[in-house]
Design brief:
The chain is of the alpha/beta class. It has 25 helices and 25 strands. The strands form five sheets. Strands 10, 11, 12, 13, 14, 15, 16 and 17 form an eight-stranded antiparallel sheet that branches. It has an eight-stranded mixed sheet with strand order 18-20-19-21-22-23-24-25, sandwiched between helices. The chain has a five-stranded antiparallel sheet with strand order 3-4-8-6-7.
Amino acid sequence: MAAVNFARAHNLVVAVRGGGHNVAGSAVCDGGLVIDLARMKGIRVDPLRRTARAQPGLTWGEFDHETQAFGLATPGGLVSSTGIAGLTLGGGVGWLSRKYGTTSDNVLSADVITAEGRQVTASPTDHADLFWAIRGGGGNFGIVTSFEYQLHPVGPSVLAGLIFYPGEVAGRFLRFFRDASASFPDAVTAIATLKMAPPVPFLPPEAHGRPMVVLGLCWAGPIDEGEAALRPLREIGPPLADLLVPRPYTQLQSMLDANWAPGFHNYWKADYLGGLPDEAIDAIVDHARAISSPLSDIKVIPLGGAFARADERFSAFPHRQAPVLFNINSRWADAGETDRHVEWTRGLSQAVQPFASGGVYVNFLGDEGEDRVRAAYGPATYDRLAEIKGRYDPTNFFRMNLFYKDVGAGPPIVFLHGTLGSSSSWAGQVARLSPQFRCIAYDRRGSSRSPYVAEGNHEHTGDADDAAALIRLLGAPPCILVASSAGGRVALDLLLRHPGLVRGAVLAEPAVFELDPDEGPAFQAAARSAVQRALADRGPRAAVDAFAELVDPAEWRSAEEEGRNRRRDNHPALLRLLQAQPVPITAERLEELHTPCVVVMGTRTHRVFRGIATVVAGSIPGARLVEMAGAGHQTYLHDPDAFAGIVADFARGLQLSPQGTVKTLESSSRDVIPSF
């Protein structure tokens, strides 16, 4: 509680570290406060009630050591070094999930420190909404200081281990595995892994460094019954080695630890698959033959059993009916080889997309594409999580959940997108500028991969606070802001409220409608009317069409359909914007700024944006106005090279034109680049 109160008092970004097992790095931050729970390792086991009360610093190896003294366990993960907290909050899939459900299914209650620095107990009867959210919804709701788990009779010995097959039989093996897994009893957990054979003594030397298939098995029941149940899986063909034996459950949990030794680079991709048709198997096997690192692997995990029987409404953990969890784990030692391994991982991930069911396991989220956070939960669950987040953390104190990309080296540039955009809106600018500059583009709160907080005013002041926190987090001050449309409003608010973080700003047609008292209110009224009509007649996605047609019809009509669809997906951000009541930004307030600024506008943009740009440039002392010939509202899309040149020249401190004059740039390209 003291750490939370200290961070709030000093406006620090907070990251919470349990086991620190997440490869996406969400447990740490730079320029903020890491609340490290690693020393909180208390555990109390009640063998009569079959429960355990455990603190979040425990690893699963430490937890199992205590519960196995009584022949008890709760579902954990696949390795012993994983922290119990992160795995639990994201759901938890492992050796016992088909028998007893996810880790989060077995949470009975939890003690949580909220953003206000208050401790509450979340259970089915107390703070039931928070209890629902923390079981699969991730770590965005507070700091869990203890979990109470349901335990089950497991071990102390289980029939478990690994069977190794040569890579030449991978296709036949996966087809057999697919068919056999459809009738697995709940006590069976089976995981197929494709990887390169390591130089270990139990594998024949001629297999070392060659592709192989590893079948990981656990029978969570009487061992004699397991021998008969698992026999068909041992008869696929002659194995390279068969290590399936009765062994202590704690040994099973640590059996794969060597694969997760620290000190390596990691990149993950994961999907739930709707099945394993032959075409999917062929794609997986083909990519396995070309695996880029001997440390990488591909996992195929059949689900079902108790995992699938839990009601979707039971907790925030979604996608219960997915038959297969597919995971690509890339690991390598040499940082110079990163691009090659990431390319291989993305290639395989793309190859299985035709067979994906549309979701992703929350604990495997990392550097994801558009809408993956929403897809990880599904629309209904995502919306409910956002509502609960608003109740327990209305100021987004636990904000290590903004999606951002940080590319290149040099002076930092932070990009702020408009209402319907995302970090990907700036892809063209990042590609052009990252060879010379450090480019940071992020999804603003409630856009694409950054979840919305239901309370607060994140369309405006909250967005500026988010940007300030991210700039501090990434060690980027003083940075240059590059902002467009509604992002320009956020940039101006940031300049007014956090001036020390920014050394300059390029503002592309900032949408500050109160600065044009003649045209601004009329444009906003027309936008609300058009959106409301489309919303009533054809739904929220059509409302985006109506708004985009009003703002920049030529750009909207020429954009690729994929880009339009992604902007349509951001319809909640548009509807919130039209209902927002921002703190006014006046010309008088802008006159107080001393940050160098360039204001960019197009010659064919709507007159309201030209009027606003002119007022902004005329009000900020020393600001310069640059006009792009032929450009509409999305100036950076009309001529990406010219816009990048403006940014680069400004960032280098070059003067574009005398103060108070307009410089018109002749466009070098009339092609409109899609915004997504």
